[in-house]
């Protein structure tokens, strides 16, 4: 098993895990319209270098 194959497999596993965690969150937010508050990272993503979206 080469290092490249190891990295590709690791990325696939991590990506699958992210989708597995994000899917229920996305479904929950698609069904509710109320704001979860500024602490909700989904409603208010705290991405670096994007200060315009803070409201
Ligand atoms: Zn939210």
Which SSEs are present, and which pair or pack?
Layout: H1 3-31
The structure holds zinc ion.
Offer a few descriptive terms.
55 residues, mainly alpha, elongated
Produce a short descriptive summary.
The protein has 55 residues and is an all-alpha fold. Helix content is 53%, strand content 0%.
Account of the protein in words:
With 55 residues, the chain is an all-alpha fold. The radius of gyration is 16 Å and the shape is elongated. 53% of the residues lie in helices and 0% in strands. Zinc ion is lined by residues 29, 36, 40, 42-43.
Range of helix content:
40-55%
Number of helices: 1
Based on CA atoms alone, the radius of gyration comes out at 16 Å
The counted number of beta strands is 0
Structural class: mainly alpha
Integer average pLDDT: 81
Number of domains: 1
Distinct bound molecules: zinc ion
The dominant shape is elongated
Note the run of SSEs as H and E. H
Low-confidence parts lasting 5 or more residues at pLDDT below 50? none
Sketch the major β-sheet. none
């Amino acid at each position: 098993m080469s290092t490249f194959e190891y990295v590709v497999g690791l990325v696939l596993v991590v990506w699958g895990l992210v989708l597995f965690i994000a899917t229920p969150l996305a479904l929950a937010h698609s069904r509710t319209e109320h704001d979860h508050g500024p602490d909700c990272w989904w409603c208010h993503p705290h991405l670096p270098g994007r200060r315009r979206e803070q409201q």
